[in-house]
Amino acid sequence: MRGGPSGGARRRAGLSMAAEHKTKLSKNLLRMKFMQRGLDSETKKQLEEEEKKIISEEHWYLDLPELKEKESFIIEEQSFLLCEDLLYGRMSFRGFNPEVEKLMLQMNAKNKEEVVEDETVELDVSDEEMARRYETLVGTIGKKFAKKRDRANYEEDENGDIKPVKAKKMFLKPQD
Amino acid sequence: MAEAAGVAAEFFASNRARAARAVLDQVVLPGEELLLPEQEDGEGPGGAGERPLRLNAGARSRVRVVCGPGLRRCGDRLLVTKCGRLRHREPGGGGGGVYWVDSQQKRYVPVKGDHVIGIVTAKSGDIFKVDVGGSEPASLSYLAFEGATKRNRPNVQVGDLIYGQFVVANKDMEPEMVCIDSCGRANGMGVIGQDGLLFKVTLGLIRKLLAPDCEILQEVGKLYPLEIVFGMNGRIWVKAKTIQQTLILANILEACEHMTADQRKQIFSRLAES
């Protein structure tokens, strides 16, 4: 029985494949991750270096001798702001424009860098107590939003303290 | 004038670079080279004996010196490019100091960071063209105002006065200005209000008036309620309650450049009486 034209083609292809033994795979295919798992680390490094060479050859660069840049200690600035302490440009006198007068105080104070002394605020609650409360608070609120499975982690001890959360079992990717 | 001529004669005679420290507050001419303090050791005649011996004579500790307007870097020295008086300021922290030439001119060259008064000349698409007195009009984007969004456009018309600062200003590109600071706040920049008078003065006068200890402004402030805006491009905008007061103020500010302190006090006392 005749297999038809497709059958004949397959048989022919099979014969030719057996004759060639190696099919030539393209470079891009070889660079793919699944093809590189079987290679040694050395071959991998070689491949990487070759790739880098290709990339760096394509980059353009100036073919000039290396000029040593002299470190200059003089900086050129064309602005007068560095040289002289100038006041802010908008001014208002005797209450003509109250907003500008407020601005004047603000900007000129910034220029002169008046340091505002930080007033130490007296604490109502001490730091230790704050830390204690916060510790328990995190657990209580966390319990509220935890899913049923995670609530097991929030089991309480005899004293009523919340046990530390156990490490969850994560999906482990299979090693090759 | 005799002092300047003497200085020039000495320069052309000796043609040697002078120490910057020695020339402070004196008139310098374009083309002069100035030595920074560290370089005077070998050059000056009496230098060798004064400096104490250093362990590593080769490596001197160099401090960063800033050369300001009117000066350029020429190798290790400063080259003067404008005529005027050489000034110096010691820094608060960090190293070196600032040297600059205190010169006088009327033509403004845009400099990054300067606050200027500009006049809106055209409105094209998303930007305004603002005339700041330089070689080209600066561009001002309509989003560069406080609280401006694409839907909420600022109310700026052709002919309005704008107080803003430069973000881009060099000889290769068109200057760009904005009316907000780096945090996005206006800080007094933006459209300057209605009425008032805009007039032009020299750049040196603006710097003199904006100096921290300026007596002229303190005396002016005592006359009557008024508002002034100074632009570093030589433009001043003044406003007072009546037109006459505004004009008096404008005349005083223009004239005080060439008046001595006594003449100024006379004028102020006369004004205070009337």
Automatic annotation (TrEMBL), chain A:
GO cellular component: cytosol; nuclear exosome (RNase complex); nucleolus; nucleoplasm
InterPro entries in the cross-refs: MPP6
Protein name as it appears in the record: M-phase phosphoprotein 6
Signal peptide positions on this chain: none
Biological source species: Camelus dromedarius
Residue spans crossing the bilayer: none
GO BP field: maturation of 5.8S rRNA
Superkingdom as given in the UniProt entry: Eukaryota
Pfam families found in the cross-reference section: MPP6
TrEMBL record, chain B:
Superkingdom per UniProt: Eukaryota
Domain K Homology: start-end pairs: 196-243
GO molecular function: RNA binding
Subcellular location: Cytoplasm; Nucleus, Nucleolus
Biological processes annotated in GO: CUT catabolic process; DNA deamination; exonucleolytic trimming to generate mature 3'-end of 5.8S rRNA from tricistronic rRNA transcript (SSU-rRNA, 5.8S rRNA, LSU-rRNA); isotype switching; mRNA catabolic process; nuclear polyadenylation-dependent rRNA catabolic process; poly(A)-dependent snoRNA 3'-end processing; positive regulation of isotype switching
Keyword line: Acetylation, Cytoplasm, Exosome, Isopeptide bond, Nucleus, RNA-binding, rRNA processing, Ubl conjugation
Assigned GO CC terms: cytoplasmic exosome (RNase complex); cytosol; euchromatin; nuclear exosome (RNase complex); nucleolus; nucleoplasm
SUPFAM superfamilies with a match to the protein in the record: Eukaryotic type KH-domain (KH-domain type I) (SSF54791), Nucleic acid-binding proteins (SSF50249), Ribosomal L27 protein-like (SSF110324)
Domain Exosome complex component RRP40 N-terminal: 26-104
Location of region: Disordered: 35-54
Keyword Acetylation appears in the UniProt entry: yes
Family: Belongs to the RRP40 family.
Protein name as it appears in the record: Exosome complex component RRP40
Upper lineage: Eukaryota, Metazoa, Chordata, Craniata, Vertebrata
